[in-house]
Amino acid sequence: MRNSRREWMAGAATTAICGFHLEAGAATVGPKLPLKANPLPLTDVRLRPSNYASAVEINIKFLLSLSPDRLLHNFRKYAGLEPKAPIYGGWESEAIAGHTLGHYMSALVLAWQQTDKAECRRRADYIVDEVALCQSKRKDGYVGALGRKAGDGRIIDGQEIFREIVRGEIKPGRFELNGSWVPLYTVHKILAGLLDVHAAWDNATALKVATLLGSYFEKVFAALNDEQMQELLVCEYGGLNESYAELYARTGDQRWLKLAERLCDRELLDPLVAREDKLSGFHANTQVPKLIGLARIHELTGKDAPRDAARFFWERVTRHHSYVIGGNSDHEYFFEPDTIALHLTESTCEHCNTYNMLKLTRQLYSRAPNGSFFDYYERAHLNHVMATQNPETGGFTYLMPMMSGAPRRYSKPGEEVFWCCVGTGMESHAKHGDSIFWEGHDTLFVNLYIPSTAQWQAKGVALTLETDYPFRSETKLVFDSVKLDRFAVALRIPGWANGCAEITVNSDPVPSTPVNGYAVIHRCWKKGDVVSLSMPLELRLETAEGSQDVLAVMYGPLVMAADLGPETEWTGVEPTMVGENLLSAFAPMASDRPRFRAQGIVRPADLTFLPFYSQYDRRSAVYFKHFTESGWKQEETALVAEQARQNDIAARSIDVMHLGKMQSERDHVLTSHISYPVTHRGRQGRDARSGGYFEFTMKVIPSPLLLQASYWGGARLRTFDILVDGVKIATQKLDQNAPGKFFDVDYPLPSKLTRDKESVKVRFAPHHLSSAGPVFGVRLLTVKVPKHNERAP
């Protein structure tokens, strides 16, 4: 079977149930679902042995290896107190310092709720008390560790930027505000951590600190008119609107709700309210928390507009902007909808995005229970989130590459990086029992099939979920105790099951009418009852949006990827699939986990497929170009022709500049300003931002010459000049010139620029508010002399 992920998502909610036999005495059908649902508290769910339970234990070990006092360093320093321990390196030594402590508080809370480990709660309380002390010393309600860069490069206390903002001095960039790196994003993380500690065990100090901090920024925002507020919100501010909405929920104070509603970035949100997908070009993780905030505002007010914008955003992202593993973004940005096949790079699927998309999914589901939400949730949780932690080291990924052969990059023990995705990684892997079970009125929803036990307090029910899903098809739900006996159990039947599932209660087949993706069983339950669910786990193919000839392999909910070998060894070519009836070529291999050998269809050689998430220290191929036999012969001919072209270019090359490579840039005496090395699809390059440039020296000879530059064909809205020895030879515009591939542009050099010279200086300079490049290599080559009967270029 072959379909697109978008088609699968759209049809998931209308799944049917097959394989039932109606027998006398069987359970009755419950045709309706509650309009609202809530997850069982994490404190009432315990994981049984599985990869999920192991991930939590590995993560707790990492959490307890961290020093709260090192994370508190700047809080104490900027409050005039002596730090108790040296500051961490990485991002914590930059202007974004403090964001990790916010994540850390939330992760400690989740780890305590998931495991009842007392040290996690003790640490969270200790941090709250320390932050409260720092806040009391500052006296105005502010507390923080964020900084700003001084003129000499030092990082200093960043509070001064908020005094500037109150005066109307607002200097925003997408990730910088008045010289500080996303300060409001960091404030949101601190507020979120404090509110999580308060909610978990009613820590009154945490709520007091959060309220005082919220009051400080209430005064900052009150000084701004609406136009200034929109200017301020250009810079990433995380889910600050959610934090203020949560303050309203905790205190009932209307001023917090009004402020939550005012924190509304119109550039993003107005099109969503109008049901317009204008996400392309937006930094993805900057946007998702804003929608989480809107969904929370809807929960608290019942207003339709926030819900509608959040729901439209969710639908567009999950069905039109997401990869097969459930993640989204290329180099952290959204791109044009339904063009996944053109964006298979080494820098896809930032983990923070998926962490936030799962939070948004839970919120939307809670107000409109539907199995399609958890079809997405399961896909992203299993295939992306579970891939982001290396179980051998406890390290986390930032990005998850979809380019064949690209290595995963995990943080390492003792390596002080503290990326944003280390923060969300701490949280994601502290709560794998979250969202397995939900309750709505008299219905128990089973949304994720993860080995666990749970207490449903409202009905006095204790139950055990026994399963080796998704490796085996059978799942058992065992009722260990029951007090209030009559209620419904709603089992999610995933869209990938194609409407087929077999359900029994105490070995008796149960008929059911599907309701919004669920098989609903309504009956009187008793201790010892066993519900068994079996779904057919089979291989299937899914096409990538943007090309019917780019495929991924699925096994039930699992993304199956080809194993290309150890991370340090793979130097091969991108594998492709050739032929018809592709699935018939997959032969199962002896293993306790899904494992298949694809024989005769993969070029250049047969490959073994296994679950993508588990290939932590391996190189993988997830997506495959597909050719018929005749199409493959044409492709081989095209590859030969391209190789001949490259050989011709190499033969005519006078000098080659490998931008982004240190030795080549040194050899060519590169100088630059506001310019950075980049990597895309395995090729290194360099760009320059507005106000910057990069320049280098290249050899020339007394002959007609071409300057050839290589660009990525999917680059958008870039305009820049190319100068040789100060003379502009071209203005280049990049805007989807050749989607999905690199392309070369030749610029003839006037002979006067090279006459009597041994070298020239080549400069790339962006236009105002634009960028130059990225440029993935520059050559100087001789002009090709046409052969007899060959037309000149």
SSE topology sketch:
Elements: E1 2-4, H1 5-11, E2 28-29, E3 38-39, E4 45-47, H2 51-65, H3 68-71, H4 73-78, H5 99-115, H6 118-138, E5 147-149, E6 155-157, H7 160-166, E7 176-177, E8 180-181, H8 183-201, H9 204-222, H10 226-232, H11 240-251, H12 254-262, H13 266-273, H14 284-301, H15 304-320, H16 351-367, H17 371-383, H18 420-428, E9 437-440, E10 443-446, E11 452-456, E12 461-467, E13 474-481, E14 486-492, E15 502-505, E16 508-509, E17 514-515, E18 518-524, E19 530-534, E20 539-544, E21 547-555, E22 558-566, E23 576-578, E24 586-588, E25 596-598, E26 602-603, E27 607-611, E28 618-621, E29 623-627, H19 629-652, E30 653-657, H20 662-667, E31 671-680, E32 683-699, E33 705-712, E34 718-724, E35 727-734, E36 742-749, H21 751-754, E37 759-766, E38 772-782
Parallel strand pairs: 1-20, 10-14, 23-29
Antiparallel strand pairs: 2-18, 3-9, 4-11, 5-6, 7-8, 9-10, 11-12, 12-13, 13-19, 14-18, 15-16, 15-19, 17-18, 20-21, 21-22, 21-29, 22-27, 22-28, 23-26, 24-25, 25-27, 30-38, 31-32, 32-37, 32-38, 33-36, 33-38, 34-35, 34-37
Mean pLDDT, to the nearest integer, reads: 92
Total helices: the number is: 21
How much strand content do the residues show? 25-35%
C-alpha termini separation: 46 Å
Count of extended strands: 38
Helix content: 25-40%
Structural class category: alpha+beta
Low-confidence stretches: 12-30, 788-793
How many strands, which pairing sense, and closed or not: the largest β-sheet? Answer: 11 strands, mixed
- Based on CA atoms alone, the radius of gyration comes out at 28 Å
Shape: globular
